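anyone seen this seq b4? input:
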Amino acid sequence: MNIKKMLSIICCFISSQVFSQNIDSTHYEVDQKEDTLVLKRWKGNEGYIDMSCDSVLKNIKIVGKKALEYNKTLKEIKLPDGIVKIDLAAFNNCLTLKSIVLPNSLISIESSGFNMCENLRSIQLLDGLISIGDWAFWKCKKMSISNLPLGLKYIGEHAFSLCENIESIKIPPLILSIKKKTFSLCKKLNRVVLPDNLRRIEEGSFAGCENLCEIKFPRSLEFIGYHSFWGCDRLTLVSLSSHTSVEECFSKNTNVVRIDTLIGN
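predicted toks r here
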């Protein structure tokens, strides 16, 4: 066995040991609210956390408001099965965070949940997720996703703004409105698939998506807000139903064709 392979095995072993140990209870603060255990505050300086391996943390249902905000050491974290909510700004500005494992039980990511986690790369949004709050992943520059959960009902304002590594996105069928600047300044975004029953695209939703060149608008669409596609200079031709209201939403070089029947996505 060569030295390089041996070192790799040793590193994997050490990593598994770190993840399998109970965490010092003085490194975190929890709060019991009726039948719900909330992670109130993280006080430790761990780089790797597996909450499912800790006798207390494995019972957490909510990662509380600002619980890990501005953490400067956390690189990887695994949340336990049973967590239903990541609360307001729970991981806000965790600049060293690279990877998080979310459970199937997760229903809601609240406002600014992962705001400015600029090094977050590895994350999978699972099918149980229903709501993504305002600014939830704002400026997560290295994160790349393509499919959002089919059961997702709400995506907030600025939720994925400045997620510069997203190349394509498919909006799930229960989303009726794309909010203000939800996907603005996603510079690599080149393809968007909209649901058949979408009603509104609000102000600046895709503004500054300079590589966006492929999008089909459903016949159900009623309104496209101001500057929704401003700066999308590669979007040279779009087709819209005659009943869709448009408020100076496209770049000057985008040719808008009005037709009554649109080809579905």
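The radius of gyration is 21 Å. Residues 7-20, 261-265 have pLDDT under 50 and may be disordered. kinda curious what u guys think
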